[in-house]
């Protein structure tokens, strides 16, 4: 966990320094224009796209999908796929994911679904258990991808 935090901090710091120096263009993409949330759906820095963590909720019902960790993981990855495509990237362009699990014992079940979305050249990944996720989700996944 500490290594993940240090790596994330250093990447963010170095990219922010390059952006401040004027070397990289930074674009923030809102979740929805009509929602005032304290985070962006995605931030593009140069040729990298950073997605906020995604949950397995159904945007139509605004509730988590039913079916446990497998169903939530599938929905989470479908939302990631849609966000990537919306912002000019795709699943094969993902270079790093961080998976947060409400219960680390569900890692194997989550992984069974996860690997179907990255059948070749899987991205680097960290996975960790947490003491709780937003909306009582079982899984949250954030990704970094290159932009086409």
Summary tags:
148 residues; alpha+beta; 60s Ribosomal Protein L30, Chain: A; seven-stranded mixed beta sheet; two-stranded antiparallel ribbon; 3 helices; 33% helix; 27% strand
Question: What global shape is seen?
Answer: globular
Mean pLDDT: 86
Give the CA-CA distance, first to last residue.
Answer: 31 Å
SSE string, helix = H, strand = E? Answer: HEEEEEEHEHEE
Q: Examine the coordinates and then state which fold CATH places here, giving the name of the CATH topology.
A: 60s Ribosomal Protein L30, Chain: A
Total number of helices: 3
**Class computed from helices, strands and strand pairing:** alpha+beta
The description of the largest β-sheet is: 7 strands, mixed
Instruction: Evaluate the radius of gyration.
Output: 15 Å
Strand content: 25-35%
Q: Please identify, by name, the CATH architecture.
A: 2-Layer Sandwich
Number of domains: 1
CATH class: Alpha Beta
Q: Let me know the CATH homologous superfamily.
A: RutC-like
Give the strand tally.
9
Low-pLDDT sequence parts: none
Helix content class: 25-40%
Description:
With 148 residues, the chain is of the alpha+beta class. It has a single domain (25-146), classed as RutC-like (60s Ribosomal Protein L30, Chain: A, 2-Layer Sandwich), CATH 3.30.1330. It has three helices and nine strands. The protein has helices spanning 2-20, 68-86, 107-117; strands at 26-29, 42-45, 48-51, 54-55, 57-58, 63-64, 94-101, 124-129, 139-146. The strands form two sheets. Strands 1, 2, 3, 4, 7, 8 and 9 form a seven-stranded mixed beta sheet that branches. The protein has a two-stranded antiparallel ribbon with strand order 5-6. A hairpin with a 2-residue loop joins strand 2 and strand 3 (48-51). It is globular, with a radius of gyration of 15 Å.
């Amino acid at each position: 966990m500490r290594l993940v935090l240090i790596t994330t901090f250093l990447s963010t710091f170095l990219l922010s320094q390059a952006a401040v120096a004027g070397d990289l263009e930074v674009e923030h993409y809102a979740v929805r224009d009509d929602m005032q949330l304290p985070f962006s759906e995605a931030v593009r820095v140069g040729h990298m796209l950073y997605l906020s963590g995604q949950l397995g909720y159904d945007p139509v019902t605004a509730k988590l999908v039913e079916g446990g960790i497998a169903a939530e993981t599938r929905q989470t990855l479908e939302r990631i796929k849609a966000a990537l495509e919306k912002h000019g990237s795709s699943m094969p362009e993902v270079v790093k994911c961080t998976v947060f699990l409400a219960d680390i014992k569900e890692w194997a079940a989550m992984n069974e679904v996860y690997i179907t979305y990255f059948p070749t050249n899987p991205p680097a990944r960290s996975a960790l258990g947490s003491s709780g996720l937003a909306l009582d989700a079982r899984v949250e996944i954030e990704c970094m991808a290159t932009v086409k």
